Amino acid sequence: MKKILIITCLIFGFSSTVFANEKTGADKWKDTYFEKHPEADTNKDGELSWPEYKTHKNAAKKPAPANDKAEKNDGEKWKDTYFQKHPEADTNKDGKLSWPEFNQHKKKNQTNNI
Fold first, then answer.
1. Is residue 43 assigned to a domain?
2. What is the average per-residue pLDDT within 72-100?
3. pTM for the complete prediction?
4. Which DSSP string corresponds to 37-106?
């Protein structure tokens, strides 16, 4: 009986060390992500930590900064239309109608129309 108990303990002990080295599903997924995106390893230690993974993944989700040629909002379009009709509203003659110039010209026209 002692032999069976010793053999059983050895088998369970050996099998537990084999399974202890197995990676969990999350670690396997993280390793796969690291293979596709090695630049995510910011400290260059050869392993992808969860904070590094999260930082890289969130950075990929952020939209690119808007450039100057991005579509104008409705207010800007309306102001540009007003400037085409009233080029004299550009008081500093820089070729652009600023919001203060627009407001000043609009107030001036309202007082003249009274």
1. yes
2. 85
3. 0.36
4. -GGG-TT-SSS--HHHHHHHHHHHHSPPPP-TTSPPPHHHHHHHHHHHH-GGG-TT-SS---HHHHHHHH
